[in-house]
Amino acid sequence: MNLSTIRELYKEPACSHNAGKKDASCPRPTPGKAAGGCSFDGAQITLAPITDAAHVVHGPIGCVGNTWNNRGSLSSGPRMNRMAFTTDLNNNDVVFGGEKKLYKAVREIAAKYSPPAIFVYQTCVTSMIGDDLEALCKAVSAKAGVPVIPVDAPGFTGTKNFGNRLAGDSLLKNVIGTREPVTYHPFNVNLIGEFNIAGELWGILPLLDRLNIRLICSLSGDARFHEVAMMHRANVNMMVCSRALLNVARRMKEKYGIPYFEGSFYGSGNTSEALITIARLIGDEGLIKRAEALAVEETARIAPRLEKLRERLSGKKALLYTGGVKSWSIVGALQELGMKVVATGTKKSTEEDKARIKNLMGEEAELISEGAPRKLLEVFKRHGADILLAGGRNQYTALKARIPFVDVNQERHIPFTGYDGHVRLAGAVAGAIESPAFRMARTPEPFGDPL
Amino acid sequence: MTEQLKVRDHNELFHLEEYQVSRDKKKEFEKGASPEKLAETRAYTCSEDYLKKNFDRKALTINPAKACQPLGALLAAVGFDGCMPYVHGSQGCAAYFRSHFIRHFKEPFAAVSDSMTEDAAVFGGQKNMIEGLKNAYALYKPKIMAVSTTCMAEVIGDDLNAFIKNSRKEGAVPDGLPIPFAHTPSFVGSHVTGYDNMMRGMLFHLAQNVKATEKDNGKINIIPGFDGFTVGNIREIRRILDLMGVDYIILGDNSETLDTPQDGEYHMYYGGTTIEEVAQARNAKATFALLPDSVEKSVTTLMKDDWGQPFEASIVPLGLSGVDNWLMKVSEITGKPVPKALEAERGRALDAMTDSGYYLHGKRFAIYGDPSYVEALVDFYMEMGAEPAHIVVTNGSKRWGRALQKKLEGSDFGKNAKVHHGADLWHLRSLMIAEPVDFLVGNTHGKILAREMKVPLIRLGFPIFDRHHLHRYATFGYQGIINILQWTVNTLLDDVDNKAGDFNLDFVR
To answer: What ipTM describes this predicted complex?
Structure first.
C-alpha cells in the first residue's frame, strides 16, 4: 500500500481525535510495551465475520495459524469463514515472490468452493517482498469470475484499530454499492461495527423486526457478502463500535447522503435510545411513535427481573477496562443497576467517547489510558472495587489477584445486547461478585500463613 | 436463591417463528444454492476423485496443523527465571502469541514487542530495538530478555547481534543484562523449530562464559520441549527423578510461571530455570530431551559440539515401552536403579491398560499434531491394540515420515497406517471420508472435523482452547498412561452412551 494512502487514512477527519490538531493522526504504538494486535489482525477480524466469503491469508503460517476461529462471531447460515485458507509461504517464496502461489490458491478456492467473494489479506512478508496484491486480485478475479477483494493491511502499518479502518476502506472501494436489493422497503438500517459476538446481533433483530425496520447489513456480524454490497441503500447507519469503522460511515454520508449516529445496545436505556434515534433519522412519524412505545413496553417487561438484581448490586463498585463504545455504554448499563463505576479504560476511545464518559461519571472520573496489569490492579485496590469488567487478556491477571471478573470483549459467551442482554449482564456481574470461590479465596488459610 | 442466568441456546433460537422470518429475509442477500445442489456438492467432496484433487493441491494450505516459530520461542523463553520474551518485529505477532498461551493455559502471559512499522521496514529495526529494550527494561525489570524475530525483521535481514550490542552501547540496557536471541522467521519451520532455536539461544548465551570442567557434576539435564501439557509433564518428570534419587536440572522449566497459585497477587515472573542452573548444566553428565522434534537441530549441535555432552533425544517418556526405555536410559547413565515405588506404578499403569483394553483393541483412529508427540501417542495406542489409520503431520520432515512409516509396517496394528507429512486438516477430512475411523486424536482445531465425521475427539496436543485444566495433567510417565487412557476410554464410552438406544444403555462397562 502506498504511503500517501496510509497517511490519509491516519488523518480520518470525522475522528475528533484528530480535530483541531496540527499534526493529526491516530496514536502509534510504543516499542517495548506490551501492545495489542496489528493492522492485519484488525482487518481480518473486521471482515472474517462475513460468513459466506472465503478468506485467504497471503503470508507465512503464523498469520493464519494463530488466528483462525479466534473470535466468537457466530453465523446463522454459511460457515465458509471458519475455514483457514493460507498460501503458507516458505523460504523460497520469500526469495522468488509469492504471487504465483496466491494466483493458484485463489483459482483453486474459486473452482472448488465457488463462494460469492474471496477476500485476500496482505501480510508483513508479502508486502515487503513486493507482491502486487491489487493487480493480482484484479487479474484472478477476471479469470475466476468471482469478486476477489484485496485487503492491503500488513501488520506493520500500525495498530488493530488502524486495520479496522483499512478493511473499511477496502469495502468502500470494492464492495459497497455494487449490488441492489431485490425488493423495496421503506425503512432500512445498517449496523456498522457489530460483530455478532456470542450472537449479540440476534438479540437486536427481533426488535428491528417488530418496528418493521429492515436490517440491510450488520458490518460484519453474521453478514453475507451481498449484504455488504447493498449497504448503500440504507436510510441510516448506526455506528455500534465507534472507532473501528468510522471512515465507512463518514464516506457513506458523503457519497450516498446516509446519515449516521453512534449508539449502543448495551443497557436497556441505551437500547431504547438507539432504536428511537434510528426511527428519528429515518424520519417517519409513525415509526418514531412505535419505537417509543416499544421502548416503554420492553423496559416494563424486564423491570421486575432487573429490580431483583439491582437489590443485589446497588452500591457495588465496578472497574471497567474495555475499548471504544463499551467504555461508555457499559458504564450506563451498570449505573442503571445502581452500581458505581470507579474508572474506565479509554485506550481505544474517541474524544466523543471520553465526553460521554465524563457526562455519565462526572468530571472527576478516572480514565485509564494504559492497561498494564499492575496499573489495573493498583486502580482496583485504590478504589476498593468489587468487580473488573474487561477482555480475555486481563482475565487471568484479575483472577490471580482474587478479583471477580466478567468478560465483555470478544471472548464473551453471553450476549449482553438489548433488553434481555441487560438482565444477563446484571446476572453475570452479580454471579461473579457472589461466587463462593472468591469468598474462600479471601479467607485466610487455616494453617496460619498470613495472606 | 439466585435467579438462573438464561441464555437461549441459538439452536433453539432459530426455530422460533420470529427468527424464521428474519432468516427468510436474509435469503435475498445470500448466494444460496438449492438443497439438491448442496447435497450434490457434498457428495462430490466425499468422492475418490476429490480425494485425489485434494492431494494434488500445492499452492494452498487449508486448516493447517502447525503454528509459527516465534510462538515456540516464547514458550522456551518463559521457562527461565525472570525472563521477559521480547519479539523483534511488528506488534501483532506478540499479541497473537499472548492470546494463544493465555487461552491454552488459562494464565496471564507476559511478552513485549518493539512494534516495528513501515519506517522500520525501510530503514531497518535498530531504532525500534534500542528504544524497545530500553522501555521494556524500565517498565518490567526483567533479569533476562529473550529476543526472537518475526518475519518482518527477517525479511529485512536485521542483525540481532549487532543491534543488541549497539543497544548496550547506547545505554538502553545495563551491560550485565543477559539478552539471548534467536532468528525465528515464520516462513521456515514451525513452532517446534522456534522452540529449538530459542532454547539454543538461551543455553548458548547464559553458559558462554562457563568453562568446562574435567569431571562432570553428576547431574543430568532435561529439556522438556514444546508441549501443551508442559505443566503436568515437568512436574511428573521431577517426581520420577526425585523418586530415583537422580540429581537433575530442567532447562526451560515453565511449569511454575504457567501455573501460578492464587495468592492474591499477579506475578509477572514466577519460578523457572535460573542463570546459575544453566551454568551448572554446562558440566552435567548428559542431557535428555523429552521431545526430539523440539531439539532437532540447534540444541543438538550445541550439546554435542560445544558442550561435548552425551545427548539423549530419541525416547519420549510416553506409553509403556516409552517410559520403560526412558527410565532404563536414565538409570544406565546415572547409575541409579529404578526404585520399587516406580515398579508399583508401572504395575498400576499396566492394570489400567488391561482394564481398558476391550474398548480400544481393534479401534481405528486418525491423529494429527507435532511429530514426536504424535509418534509417541501412536506407539502407545498400538500398545493398547488400537490401529492407526491416518497420521497427519504438517511440520514433520520427509525423513521422519519415512522412518515412522517403516516402523508401522513392521507392526501388526500399524501395517495399514499411512503417514502424511506436510498435510493439513483438509487433507485429513478427505482421508477420514475415504476410510472412516472410530476416533480422532488432536488439538482443538479438529473439533469441526470430528463433528462432521461424527467421531469423538480426544484432545491431546496444542492448542486446547475449549477444555479446562488438561495442561495440569501429566501425559508422561506411568501416571500419564493412566491419564491418557482415562480421557480416551471415557470419551469413547460417553459416545457409546450418547448413541445408545433404549436397549443398550448400560450401568456397567
So the answer is: 0.88
